[in-house]
Amino acid sequence: MAPVISHPVGQQTSVRPTTACEIARQPATGWLKEDSIAGGVLIVLVLTGLQRLIGFVRSLLFCRWLEPDQLGQWDVAWGFLMLAAPLAVLSLPGTFGRYLEHYKAAGQLRVFLCRTAVVCLGLALVACGLLLAMPAAFSWIIFGSDAQQQLIAPLAGSLLAVIAYNYLISLLTSLRTMRLVAVLETVNSASFALAGGLLVYCWQPSAASAIVAYGAASLLCVVAATGWMQTIWRHAPQITPAIPQREFWAKLLPFAGWIMLVNLLTNLFSIADRYLIAQLAPGDSQSRLALVGQYHSARVLPLLLASLASMLAAMILPHLSRDWEAGSRQQVSRRMNLGLKLLGLSLTAASAVLLLGAPLLFRLAFAGKYQQGLDILPWTLLSGVWFGAAALAQMYLWCAERAGKACLATALGLAVSVVLNLLLLPRLGLQGVVLSAAAANLTMLAAVLWFSCRLGLRVDRGVWLALAAPAALCVSPVAALAVVTIVGWFSFRRQWHN
Fold first, then answer.
1. Angle (deg, nearest 10), helices 152-174 and 109-133
2. Which of 15, 135, 413, 494 satisfies CB 3.0 to 4.6 Å to 444 for a cystine?
3. pLDDT tier at 264, thresholds 50, 70, 90
């Protein structure tokens, strides 16, 4: 029998129900504890640097152990996964950062998770079913021939795992558990490198090994996070009645549409040239995919530089946003000018140093199999510098809340890439591809700066010099270092800051 608790006469007690907002504010513990902005940025920077190092080593091993045509197959397959994963689920996980906290505060987090998870799962199964039902058609679409039908089944399985992994990362990021996100991303990168290396070296040196390893790494992280997902579910009780389906999707789908457009343009810009090589380059399917492999080897170093530029852009955005909200547009322009000059000159100098050591890298690490990649390396490095500068310059458009302008700039670059590849690829081969890539990245950079200038950005003459300096990479690395020295001296002189 339960004890009877007596209260003094005349004193009333009441139990106030816990509100949805109070539950939303209840602190989580352990790995699910919310991280501060500063702490989250520090953790992400450290582990992101580790991820880049792991990815670089993995790329070196793939280039060494895979033949050019197999490397090309993996490159095209990976590009397909990056493009198809968000499209297959209509970019719904991309809405989490904007709307998850809204439904969490309203006590409807379980409804939000259930509905988005069910729809994403259904769409993912449909996409995978289409791949399995039409292997010949998708082999032509992805690889340019029906000779790679055996890769479609591994691709379908990996696609399902990647979609689940993206859902998980989007959810944990929206919950601001940056430590857990950074750890999972690092585990994913390390497990992919380990599994990919083992399968390529011990099983078969083919694209199938890389595809299976990538899907397995994503699945491993999803399984490992099962316990944390259960904890999230337990801490998300349903407090208020579920919002009607029509009202729920009317809020999410328009925002998801914009995110899907951004993802589509960004991913198409990244993979369009390799897709066109696989479809339109002279020769049979194997020779075209081997050409993609050569191009892949020439992009290993530039992608490393571009990723560093993207990290810098993410780091500088909060500072720009603070100045913007304070109304200090001149300070925003000064920070952007300084960032673009430092980025352009430092990446150009780094590219020149990499060019000096590239012959040794391609001969030893790449086993001398990618001479064409070495020949076009100056052009891919040039494209990487301009791509990084465009990523940094776009931060001004984000501050001005003009995401549509950033999409338009990417679309212009994509159009230039496709048109020039159609004209130059059949005639010049890989040289035409890298010329098209350089023109596309320059177009995107110029468009971003033009839109930004119309919105108030003041670009000094030193910035134009710093952004033109990478062109010297196509002359020689020594010439590029000389240009960096001269341009650096001129661009930072006080009279050039106008």
1. 170
2. 413
3. very high
Domain spans in the chain, listed from the N-terminal domain onward: 19-271, 281-498
Instruction: For the chain, report the end-to-end CA distance as a whole number of angstroms.
Output: 84
Q: What is the pLDDT of residues 104-116, one digit of tens each?
A: 888 888 899 999 9
Closest CA to 467 of 488, 451, 482: 488
* Tens digit of each residue's pLDDT (9 = 90 or more) over 159-192: 999 999 999 999 988 887 877 888 898 999 999 9
pLDDT at 8: 38
What SS3 string covers 202-263?
HHCCCHHHHHHHHHHHHHHHHHHCHHHHHHHHHCCCCCCCCCCHHHHHHHHHHHHHHHHHHH
Spatial distance between the Cα atoms of 243 and 118, rounded to a whole number of angstroms: 16
Residue 327 zone, left/alpha/beta (φ > 0; ψ -120 to 50; rest)? left
Asked if residues 174 and 97 have their Cβ atoms less than 8 Å apart, the reply is yes
Question: Rounded to whole angstroms, how far apart are CA atoms 322 and 328?
Answer: 9
With a cut of 90, say whether residue 483 has pLDDT above it: yes
Report pLDDT digits (tens) over 427-473. 999 999 999 999 999 999 999 999 999 999 999 888 999 999 999 99
Rounded distance between C-alpha atoms, residue 218 and residue 154, angstroms: 13
CA angle, 356 then 360 then 365, to 5°: 130
What token pair was written down for 219?
């699945």
Per the listing, tokens 């914009």 go with 258
> What angle separates helix 245-280 from helix 68-88, to the nearest 10 degrees?
160
